[in-house]
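Dock magnesium ion; give full complex structure.
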Amino acid sequence: MLIVQKYGGTSVGSPERIKEVAKRVARCKNEGNDVAVIVSAMSGVTDSLIAKAYEISQTPSNHDMDILLSSGEIVSASLTAMAIETFGFKSIAFTGSQAGIITDNCHTKAKITKVDTKRVAKAISEGYVPVIAGFQGVTDDLIDITTLGRGGSDLSAVAVAEALKADLCEIYTDVDGVYTTDPNIVKDARKLEKISYEEMLELASLGAKVLQSRSVEFAKNYNVKVVVRSSFTDDPGTLIVKEDSIMEQVVVSGVAYDKKQARITIHGVPDRPGIAALLFTAIANENIVVDMIVQNISIEGTITDISFTVPKTDISKAMEVSKKIAKELKAAEVLLNEDIAKISVVGVGMRTHSGVAAKIFKILSENNINIMMISTSEIKVSCIVDLKYTELAVRVLHDAFELNKI
Ligand code: ASP
Ligand code: MG
């Protein structure tokens, strides 16, 4: 088999950990497999590089940020390749550029446009274990280093697995799989043996930290077989697979929470065609990802309110844009609420079972938790609640759907 293994920050967090990674790679090779490795930066490195940059400048250029941040993965890739060689296997480190990871030129949030596997495939065929720096790529003209956004080495791994037509993409992290909810909040949260791409996608974009959501989307689109497992244990982990009939018997498979969103409300906006387009185009132009949007029906058909959520990291830009548009529209005011959390219940079974949303609302109300915003998809119900009720809401919903019995 050809296996792509991705090791996250804690898995390569120290020289000792890197040796453990090399041992695992060696074991996989000894079992007769070909292996390609993708690594994250050593844990904390990306954060600390960002902090240093902002200690020096409030407005570092994205181009320079990419050069800075890409260094983290280059360090861990080269160290990991060296470690693998000490176990008697040929190994070679590649930067994203050397590994043919081509991206657009959107610095710090680049998208992969192509993976040219020539060099990596050649290395594998010559018996090497290529170790590729995750999270980074190069523009089409092979000139500029780019990075793929936080958590982007998951995406590197899935994209390389797809390009190499690997049999399996193993994502090694510090938890042994995907849980029904955060075990730090609910002690009897269960590890799922399998989860569908759709559910994983919802959970990942809802704040479950095991996998970057773009990587799940990619895996889903290209049908890359992914398993999430721990580099600290031999637990088989959680397999991410296509939705099948067995899974539909479970209505709900997870409860997620996200404390990283803030809500912006624009009061007194004229209720006429084009207003939402104007506002959200301006927000999109700043590359801000809006999550939930709620617009009230205006009673007299003239004035309404629009509320939406954005990542806390984008608050200042989003507020600036909102205030500018509010002024143009002569809206009454722009309000910000940072003390919110999004609680989401996810399950493919919702496609065929009714009453899930009603049950959620009932449970929350029984616990005196007020719901500020609601959004649903075919397989998810999300509610915005006061930040201080996050843990309580997660716990009571996990209990109500008996997820400890999955
Ligand atoms: N090192 C990058 C980050 O911390 C990418 C990754 O680890 O996936 O976001
Ligand atoms: Mg990660």
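Observed: Residues 368 and 389 are 9 Å apart (CA to CA).
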